[in-house]
Amino acid sequence: MLNVTLLTSVAKSALVGAVVTKIVDTLISSKINNNSISSILKTLVLCLLSFFIFIVLNILTILILPDATPLIGALCFGNFARESGVVDRLSDTMQNSLINIVTIFLGLGVGSKLASEQFLVPETMGIMVIGLLAFSAGTAGGVIMAKLMNLVSSKENQINPLIGAAGVSAVPMAARVVSKEGQIYDKSNILLMHAMGPNVAGVIGSAVAAGVLLSIFK
Fold first, then answer.
1. Are 195 and 174 in contact (CB under 8 A)?
2. How many domains does the chain divide into?
3. pLDDT per residue over 160-187, tens digit each?
C-alpha cells in the first residue's frame, strides 16, 4: 500500500500544486520576480555551502537516525555528483535516464502484483485521501508562510509566495509546477531554481519522517 501511495505522489503534487497556489496566492504577489537576486558570487557560495550542509546532514542522520541513512545518503550522493562538476556524465545519467528507468520498473513491478481486491479497499482509499490532504496543506501552508515573511521583509527582499508551494517531497514536479504558475503572470519570471530549495527541504523532511516511523514500528 505504501508503494502505491509513493507512486501517486508526483501526480498529486502536480495537480494540488497548481490548484492550491491559484486559490491561496494573488495576482500581484505572483508577479514578484526573484531573478534579480542571482549572481555568480552567490552561486559559488551556495555550491560550497551545499557541500557542507549535505556532509553535516549525512553525519547527523547516521548518528541520530540510522534508518533514514539510505534515503538521505542517496540524496547527498546525487548532490555531490552534480555540484562537483567532474562527473557530469554520471550526474546527467542519474538525473535523467537512470531515474526514468527506475521509475518504469518500479511502476511495472508494483503494478504487476497489484490485484484489484488488494487495491480497491477502504484502507488504500483512506491513504490516498490522507495523502491528498497532506499535499494540499503543505502547499497552502508554504504559500501562506511566504506571504507572512513578506510582511516583515523590506520591499527589496520580498520573495514570490509561489516558492513556498514547492516545500513538498515531490521532486522536481513541485518546483516545475511553481515555475509554470509563476510564468503565467510574468513570462520572464523563472522560479525553478529558487523553488528547488524548499523542494529539496521537503524531500529531506520526508526522509527523516520515514526514518522515524521505521524506527518506531520496525
1. yes
2. 1
3. 888 988 888 777 788 888 888 888 888 8
